[in-house]
Design goal:
Blueprint: E1 6-12, E2 16-22, E3 25-31, H1 33-43, E4 48-54, H2 60-67, E5 71-76, E6 81-86, E7 96-101, E8 115-121, H3 131-139, E9 143-147, H4 149-152, E10 153-156, E11 159-162, H5 168-172, E12 177-181, H6 182-189, H7 194-202, E13 208-213, E14 216-221, E15 224-229, H8 241-252, H9 258-272, H10 283-293
Parallel strand pairs: 1-4, 1-8, 2-6, 4-5, 8-9, 9-12, 12-13
Antiparallel strand pairs: 2-3, 6-7, 7-11, 10-11, 13-14, 14-15
Amino acid sequence: MKNNKIYDLICIGNYTKDTIIIPSGVTYVDGGAVNYSAHAAVRLGFKVAVVTHLAREDERVVVKFNQAGIICLPRYTPNSTNMRLEYPTANPDIRTLFVTATAGTITTDEVQELQAKSAVIGSSLRGEVGLDVIHCLKEKNITVAVDVQGYVRVLRDQVLQYETWDEMEETLSQVDILKSDAVEAEYLTGETDIKKAALAFVDMGPKEIVLTHKDGVLVYADGQFYNRPFFPKNMTGRSGRGDTCVGTYVSMRLTQSPAEASIWAAAVTSLKMENQGPFNRSLSEVESLIAEKYNGQIH
């Protein structure tokens, strides 16, 4: 079926049914990178579509997308991806991930007819979104952002663990914006210094780097670094931090400079971390936080 709409942003990746375990207790959340990135972008006023897989029993997620003004293009599978996220400390970078079921691989036919300015690929594990999908998007002149989490993570006996990514340089040569967290960056580049890690990624092809760490987000673009701190009042909603950050950054880059987009990404992510689930705050709250905490940081 031909889709003639032109979206600002397409978010590609499987929904995940999350069990989140933190020192203060256990919660159950509708997760997945696409869930967090899409809701952040639509709240900022962009036209957003989601390409995802999930089980029929989780159709409420599709309803929530549609109610938020996000066009959801689901493929229903026998199982949703089921994930358990264990955070033993207050540091959001330290966690163990378990997957008990997956919703399979997203294929090129699911994006072939879509037109968009940008796309964020936010998958949970290797094999969910392949290089063929990236090639398909690039052929349509879509700006492609990739979160490396979906490529460095491999499922072994229900545990997600980091493994060597043989296609890294081939894949990143096709990527415009790369998203990583500090732990993934060190694993993939061997650099403990996040600025050196960002530059190592740039050498592989991406023009812009969005690198989250426990205190904020480091952006590299046009030869400049922008390190923006997070200012959450609490960490209740730490899960989905990076997905919210990259969804905000990529969508804001459609209208703003890297310096400005990095501030919006940090502010939106700060507010998101105060609540479980996708970002649900108002534009005015974001603007207030920017005025209060980031005033004068645009450079």
